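job 3f2a | input accepted
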Amino acid sequence: MKRKGYSNLYPFNTSIDGHMNPVKIFTDPRDKKEYILDYNNEDDRLSQLKKINKIISSYNGEVMKNHGEYLKKLPSDGKVHSATEVGFDKPLHLLPELPLWGFAVLGKNEIKDYDRIKPISIDDRKLYRLQNRSK
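job 3f2a | predicted structure (135 res):
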């Protein structure tokens, strides 16, 4: 059913799923194990993402402990020191968890230069379900 003028209300031209299927979605920096997102349905997709996020959360917990150790190694000379300068080689960078409800939209643009169009990421359950229903 074509809705006259309704599509003009959308501030974007198209939406893109947040996760391809299947896709290598995460590599654990600790053991270099690769995690592949390969799902059959929405429940399976959510289950896999939650398991991977649990692994990321575990990694981030270790990083937070590392921060405490790193801070103890810093000299109190008032200067900025890198981890390597003080002989610290454990991970210090937190990783973001994967969005459960992620998708991206491409804004409306009269220019047909798609390389210049930047996607906008959205992580919202209701909007995700609306986006998937409209396909």
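job 3f2a | The helical segments are 42-73, 125-133.
job 3f2a | closed
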